[in-house]
Design brief:
Elements lengths: L2 E10 L3 E10 L2 E10 L6 E5 L2 H9 L4 H14 L2 E2 L13
Parallel strand pairs: 1-5
Antiparallel strand pairs: 1-2, 2-3, 3-4
């Protein structure tokens, strides 16, 4: 499964941030929202997709839970692109 993540915007800090973005999956583009938490118990990301996106993914033959888990994994591991002017250091602990 070829999933690529692009962040549109991040509001918050290293402690907690709201993320909006899109992901492409085998050439299809979908939007998502996520909440990222740091420090208390380590990094954690909760990504959410709309019911419409869930239905589209099912129509294309994807397991929705597997897609969301891969999306969250990419967010946690930093496998993503950022808009110009936003630096990874502004929200990721190194």
């Amino acid at each position: 499964m070829d999933l690529k993540v692009h962040i549109n915007n991040i509001h918050g800090s290293q402690m907690a941030a709201k993320i909006t973005g899109k992901f492409t999956l085998d050439g299809n583009e979908f939007r998502f929202n996520a909440i990222a938490f740091g420090r208390i118990g380590g990094q954690n990301v909760g990504a959410k997709i709309s019911k419409t996106t869930e239905q589209e993914l099912k129509k294309l033959g994807y397991d929705v839970d597997e897609v969301v888990m891969l999306l969250q994994k990419n967010l946690l591991q930093g496998n993503l692109t950022l808009p110009e002017g936003l630096k990874r250091e502004s929200f990721v602990d190194d």
